[in-house]
Amino acid sequence: MVSMDSWRVTLATAVCATTLVGGCRSTPSAQPLTPSSFYSNQNPAADPPDHPLDKPGVIDYDAPRRPEKSTPAEPLILAPKPAPVPTPAPAPATTGPTSLNGGAPVTQQYEDEGFQVVGFVVAEVNGNPIFADQVIKQLKSALAAEARKLDRDDFRKAAGELIKRQIDTLVMNELEIAAAESRLNEEEKRSADMMTMQWRLQEITRAGGSVQQALENYRSQGLEFDEEVRKQYQQNLVKVFTWRKLMPLIRVNAADMRQYYDGNANLYTQFGQATFRVIKIDPKQHGGRDAAERRAREIRQRALTEDFAELAASEANDDPIARRTGSLLKDMKKDSYVHEKVEDAVWATKPGEVTDVIADGGAFYIAKVESIQDGTVTPFGDMAVQAGIRERLMSQQFQKLRESHRQRLIQNAVIKGGTGEQLAITLDMAMQNYDQWASANSSAN
Fold first, then answer.
1. Residues forming a β-bridge with 329
2. Where are the alpha helices (DSSP H) in 264-413?
3. Which residues touch 32 (CB under 8 Å, ≥6 apart)?
4. Which of 324, 420, 437, 402 is closest to 28 using CA atoms?
5. pLDDT tens, position by position, 327-359
């Protein structure tokens, strides 16, 4: 029987790793996040002489959740946007301001994406901003794939749905991380810290034991190693929160397990099934019943020595449709064949043997049994059955608990933006790349 502790570790690891690495979802259809969740890709300058990863001791995870980049000096808050003020700039015009408080547009030229607005706040969760270019970068692969399949109008609809789901996902990420940070005690946070340091050590080991090489490996992917370490810490906080706060609430008793077993008996029943071939002799085609019976006995004698499949596919079989497949009936479940007497004879015959002539439904039949598998029922007392039921019920309870937890987080949070004008501007940013993404398909061909 699976122990509660081992199940907690297995389920929590699988679920939490999926939700954080792939992105926590507020809707079931949300797309998985890329490894760049919670940060934007940059090309930083060379490392300072004393990189924080080279220093001993616990890493500082309290840095801002997004690397600094060129944004308006005023605080990023959600407020009505005043009329834009023209500002001379060498970069091409952009689709909107970089913050919802009316800051001047800031553009950045990406090597493979042309010009794009950066620093625009599409949503805010308890004061933490979610940036539009962050959303677009995380969806780049999915958006490019849609652009290669759809025309501009259809792409705009599909992109809008992807962007909305991704914003919802990032909002939920922020809420779950904040909940874990506020509700875990120092000992529990140290557990997350130890898990993070183990991950960091594994990455450095994979890089040949060199911190500098690990930094370079991540930088070659457009990532920052120290930012990835911080992100891993956030993921581990949510894992620890799941283990310590949600998993202990799960309760599965013997009565629950028995009720599930009785209500899902088909899951533990292997129905009997047989594979056989049937030859039909129809009295209407042989001048009456007596003549048909004599022919049936002649064919049965031939079936004892000849290949039954070839015989069933020949004119000896009066069923023209069945002749096409040699009258093969594969894996027929017990009590499912149309001719009851034929089926009874099949189940009374050993594999490899031919039945006697069977009169059923005004015709005569001969069958050869190829295989038979008796039905079985795995009892409730089987340890594997109980372990499977326990795991299934615990998983169901966990899903309900997590959904309830998420709903409470949303109800108690201050969430701004993510819809209307903010969503429209983010969608316009994606549309700037449509032509390039769509043409990638033709150039590849």
1. 276
2. 289-303, 308-312, 320-323, 340-347, 383-412
3. 22, 23
4. 402
5. 999 989 888 888 999 999 999 999 999 999 999
